[in-house]
């Protein structure tokens, strides 16, 4: 089994579902979040999206393979409803969205041609089990695709102390919830452990450096750490006071206002054959 802090398959989604989180996730597209997969997709492929979240990536994938060929799962009916709302907003009927546990996918062997996941494995209790399930439900020769962040590898300028504290607290909160904050660097090893073959490893980035991008990223990050689910978790655990969290928010504002402000998120990627 993988070296992982989680016990059992309990789920606690660190980020929560408040507006700052969903606003951030709606900036995700297949182009900026699954570019390694796109050249391999064709109309008519049966595709499973594991952890569809805000639904924007799901929508892009559905436009390529056909909405009637896409099944998306989320951890709860609440979060599945978020995906459904986005698909409906984009006029994409025919995608099946259901609540399911990624550790025990409710599908037959070889039911799909492609199984995709994005920023999900660093939240789950057993990422190797999830990848093995994705392999099981993918037809022989089909594609399993994953992309995961690596919080320890995020870099930024200027190096404001509040941003370093932000990272330390986020890593601590995610680990306390049974997640793996450095999932990006582990993804290749997890894929091999899950029995995937012909694994193509890679990496990708998101970069926030223009004034508009800085304002967006700082606003979302500041709101999450000062008033979101993570903030409440840290306050409840006695890991930070509201004043301390507000000070981190102020450093996010300083970063956004700096013309030299630059922030890069590193992601590990894999494209494998079932």
TrEMBL record:
PANTHER family in alphabetical order: HYPOTHETICAL LOC100005854, ZGC:194242
Keywords per UniProt: Methyltransferase, Transferase
Cited InterPro entries: Erg6_SMT_methyltransf, Methyltransf_11, SAM-dependent_MTases_sf
Name the record gives this protein: Methyltransferase domain-containing protein
Superkingdom in the source lineage: Bacteria
Molecular function GO terms recorded: methyltransferase activity
Gene3D superfamilies listed in its UniProt record: Vaccinia Virus protein VP39 (3.40.50.150)
